[in-house]
Amino acid sequence: MADVTGRMLSLLSTLQSGRSFSGDELARRLGVSPRTLRRDVERLRGYGYPVDTQPGPGGYYRLAAGRTMPPLVLDDDEAIATLLGLASLAATGPAAAGGLDAAATRAYGKLDQFLPARLRPRVASVRASLETGAQETPPVAAEQVGLLAEAIDRAEVVTFDYTDARGGRSRRRVEPYRQVHHLLRWYLLGWDLDRADWRVFRLDRVGDPLRTGTGYRRRPLPAGSALEYLRRGLDRIRQRVTLVVAAPAAPVLDALRYHDAEIEAVGDRRTRVTVSVDSWRWLLLHLAFLDADFTIDAPPDLTAACRTFAHRLLSATTPGPSR
């Protein structure tokens, strides 16, 4: 019975990924015969899980969507990971009505209602023992993220009001390509039809988004990914710096945890850091928190500014004649 239960949970967890699986693929994943797989699928149906089947060549098994589902099946680790993910998202704003943070807060409180009885005590214990530090971020509406996701999936033009960094307002017509979550901000990457170019929009500055019903042919993105394109734009006005720090990667990563830095361990006691900075002042501030020796490879104007400041510090701390 224990083997059957574990096999059923594995089957259900696989089907809940949302994709279709051939019978051969499912049988290999679970390590069972096709006959055992068919029996397990029938058991799932008997428990109320709607499994669709397409027989013959090209056939598949798929968990049907859009129907009433029995309790959510998660193993212990998945339940805790889900709870921690919701707690982290709930801590990113003031829980404004309609925001992602507010939706996460509600889901956080309801999670035990959708879990099997066996997991409810564990989840309740984690929830009671957990506090999450707030990280205030601009609010983004859950409805807005969902609307844009549908437009991206259907290759459909959207319109919205947009407020830029200087406060200027405009109405945009955009072919949406991807939504990106990066450094606690949400972005939309799309082709701006009126400007005939790719643009990145902060979602917290997007207002009144509407799907138009007008389709479009997808364009090739001039980057390996939407995140890469976003980083290029953010780095356009920044200077790229490479550091080698005489410290293990873990404390370096902790000191730079809120910044888009590439961190690579070079042996046990040295770490290479590649980061784009707005100014040399930002760089010096974070280097002070590292409390370790380092070398800087940066553009000449940045290294000259660091050298000048170092002389000032040395002069300020060198004992001189009393006045």
Summarize the structure in words.
With 323 residues, the chain is α+β, with helices and mostly antiparallel strands. The protein is built from 11 helices and 11 strands. The protein has helices at 2-15, 23-30, 34-46, 76-90, 100-110, 120-129, 142-153, 226-235, 249-255, 280-290, 300-317, and strands at residues 51-54, 60-63, 156-163, 169-182, 185-192, 197-202, 206-215, 239-245, 262-265, 271-277, 294-297. The strands form 3 sheets. It has a 5-stranded antiparallel β-sheet with strand order 6-5-4-3-7. α1 packs across α3 (34-46), α4 (76-90) packs antiparallel against α5 and α4 (76-90) packs parallel to α6 (120-129). The chain is globular. The mean pLDDT is 85.
Topology:
Layout lengths: L1 H14 L7 H8 L3 H13 L4 E4 L5 E4 L12 H15 L9 H11 L9 H10 L12 H12 L2 E8 L5 E14 L2 E8 L4 E6 L3 E10 L10 H10 L3 E7 L3 H7 L6 E4 L5 E7 L2 H11 L3 E4 L2 H18 L6
Antiparallel strand pairs: 1-2, 3-4, 3-7, 4-5, 5-6, 8-10, 8-11, 9-10
